[in-house]
């Protein structure tokens, strides 16, 4: 059992945490909006993603999917080695319009827990913005109750 835990369980847990951390931080922040059915469009959704600078060589090791994520959503079929150049172009167009989001996230280990605690996955809806599900809908779904009308 100890052999299995060291060779399979530990790497699986580390990889799962890393995948969750990167994905969550690229798509969630205090000002990120979630749009309801009929309101969402591909580019609009892509503009809600965030370029996060992880530092410590992480951005290079992950082929810049962390710090060039907005360009990845704008041009999803682009090879990763072109993401830094594309990000420069995307940033030059979006930043003057206030549509580009970039965060220094060198504290990503604590940031993912802090942001998940504060923002979560399922947030109550704001005026004109419909999240994927509200907190009460998530609770109902987890309890096996009807949660959509």
Short description:
The protein has about 150 residues and is mainly α.
Question: Which SSEs are present, and which pair or pack?
Answer:
Layout: H1 2-27, H2 42-46, E1 51-53, H3 58-61, H4 69-74, H5 83-94, E2 102-104, H6 108-118, H7 135-142
Parallel strand pairs: 1-2
Describe this structure in words.
The protein has about 150 residues and is mainly α. The model has no long low-confidence stretch (mean pLDDT about 85). The protein has 2 domains: about 1-120, no CATH class; about 120-149, no CATH class. Helix content is about 50%, strand content about 5%. The protein has helices at about 1-25, 40-45, 60, 70-75, 85-95, 110-120, 135-140, and strands at about 50-55, 100-105.
Described by the principal axes of the CA atoms, the overall outline is: globular
Class by alpha and beta content: mainly alpha
Distance between the termini: 46 Å
Strand content: under 5%
The DSSP helix count reads 7
Cα gyration radius (Å): 18 Å
How many E-type strands?
A: 2
Mean pLDDT: 85
Provide the low-confidence segments as ranges. Answer: none
Write the element-wise H/E pattern from the N-terminal end onward.
HHEHHHEHH
Overall helicity: 40-55%
Total count of domains: 2
How do the strands line up in the largest sheet?
A: 1-2
